Amino acid sequence: TAGNNPTTIAIDPAGNIYTANYGSNNVSKITPAGVSSIISISVGTSYGFAVDTIGNVYITSGSNDRVTKISPAGESSTIPITIFSINGSVSDIAVDTSGNIYIVNSGSNNITKLSPNFAGIKALGGDYNEASTFTDNTVTIANISTTLQLSVLLSGAKDIIGMRSDLRAANLIPASQPYNTPAFGYAGTETIPGGIDAIPSNFVDWILVEIKTPNGVSELKKAVLLDNKGRAHDAATPTVDRIDLGTNVTAGALYNVIIRHFNHIAISTNTPITITTDNSGNNTLDFTINNNVKADNQQLTYTIPAGQIGAGNYYGLKQGNTNGDDVIDSIDRAQVRIAPEASIYSPSDLNLDGVIDGIDKTTVRTAIEVGEVIN
For residues 252-276, b (16+ Cβ closer than 10 Å) or e, as one string? Predict the structure, then answer.
């Protein structure tokens, strides 16, 4: 009486074995004595099985978006996922010792919690419904990791369109983040796996990203890399054009995003933005649009003429802040002026071409004194 193509398995407290059978679209039960039977319920493609302390078995069905409950007496009932606003594509499931049910939703990138007897629901990192009917004091589950697609330009590396990757061409971009200096005080350990040779050829440089609450509490700092189109990449996943915020953000909350570079003026979001729990690229922030920046505190980097794809003005951070403080001033001019000409990775290389030379000295001499304006 075994089913065909079993995909998941569970054992209840009495020692009964259950398998969800994809091929025969049913569930098999095998007792400790070896007696097997078929429970005629439709499970479709099941990726999760869980058993609670009293012997109820829960089975997820990703193909028809529901959870089936089988009681110790063998009675089955269906929990329609739509009732609980779970956004489809359910996969794994777990039950804690208090009877709370946790369902992994691959379709909405979050975890849903159902309290005992389904009196309440909470999408951990997502929306809340009937949230007052339960508490979270039995199990701690972190929010699903959140990502952000971030676009930033550095005016020092400006090209006709996008940015130059001269530092990469000269093998001068360090494999590890460069912001562990007194000026920035960042102790992160971000490193490109494989070293300098593994840095993609279109990468421009490292930037430092900070996520803050509206009242100024820093929730996250991390160093990431920019490609020549201004897209940010994590060092650990350089081929992915979004950065991982981990579980440091709260779904639906407001945050300011601050961008720093070692020889450009820092910028921040004009107003706090909402970041949702999502790791599929739906959180986006484009700093090349100057209106998205506090006080429009950037400079025009390049323009794509009307009638062409992507037509418009594109803005980037202002170059010239070589000592990592909050202003371009005489101190920066002096630092570049006395810097020896050399092929080196240095804040005095204002145009990020890999060489400190007369171009940098001229650039800093004509730079307009300006301070950062950040939230």
Answer: eeebbbbbbbbbbbbbbbbebbebb
**DSSP code of residue 158:** B
State the number of CA atoms in the 13 A half-sphere of 132 facing the CB: 0
Amino acid letter, 302 = Y
Give the Cα separation of 207 and 356 in Å (integer).
20
Q: pLDDT tens digits for 81-107?
A: 444 444 456 667 888 777 777 777 666
**Secondary structure (3-state) at 359:** helix
User: Whole-model pTM?
Assistant: 0.66
CB 10 within 8 A of CB 57: yes
- For 44, other C-beta atoms within 10 Å of its C-beta total 16
- pLDDT category of residue 74 using cuts at 50, 70 and 90: confident
**Which residue type is seen at 342?**
A
Token digits of residue 332 = 């920066």
Rounded to whole angstroms, how far apart are CA atoms 241 and 136?
A: 34
Q: Dihedral sign, CA of 127, 129, 131, 134?
A: negative
Own/partner long-range contacts of 185-193 (Cβ < 8 Å, ≥24 apart): 186/221, 186/223, 188/221, 188/222, 188/223, 190/222, 190/223, 190/224, 190/234, 190/235, 190/236, 191/235, 192/225, 192/235, 192/238, 193/235, 193/236
Q: pLDDT per residue over 289-325, tens digit each?
A: 999 999 999 999 999 999 999 999 999 999 999 999 9
Q: Which residue has the tokens 């920066």?
A: 332
DSSP 3-state helix, strand, coil percentages of the chain (rounded to 5)? Answer: 10, 35, 50
pLDDT above 70: percentage of residues in the chain = 81
Pseudo-torsion of CA 298, 301, 303, 309, nearest 10°?
Answer: -90
CA nearest 356: which of 266, 225, 263, 224?
Answer: 263
Q: How many CA atoms lie within 13 A of 191 on its CB side?
A: 5
The amino acid that residue 30 corresponds to is I
Q: What is the 3-state secondary structure (H, E, C) of 232-277?
A: EECCCCCCCCCEEEECCCCCCEEEEEEEEECCEEEEEECCCEEECC
Answer whether 271's CB lies under 8 Å from 283's CB: no
